[in-house]
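TODO from last week: model Tetratricopeptide repeat protein.
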Amino acid sequence: MRKKAIRILNLSTKQPNFSKEEKSSGFIYLGILYSKTKEFNLASDCFHQGLELMVYVNFNYHENFKKAIETFIKSEDFERANFWLNNLIQRQSYDNKFKKLGELEKKVK
């Protein structure tokens, strides 16, 4: 079922009529699915694409952001891990829940 879900989500992220938020969400969920199948490099790419779509948009904290940073670390993509961890932690200016990600700072440095 995961492979089928991955196929469907991949198609959905390419739909021109979907909003940036919908595409971003699709990439994040693709990252989660790839992480579950231990395809960490693909998961890392999906998380990055999903976050990149929303880089200039304020959005609320979600536990999947922690999974994204952990996946960057597992795939040894420390440049992305540092960039996104810093970006997300700065978002505590409008949502205090982003502080939770501070515990990951030790793992990336």
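Done. The domain at 2-108 is CATH 1.25.40 (Serine Threonine Protein Phosphatase 5, Tetratricopeptide repeat).
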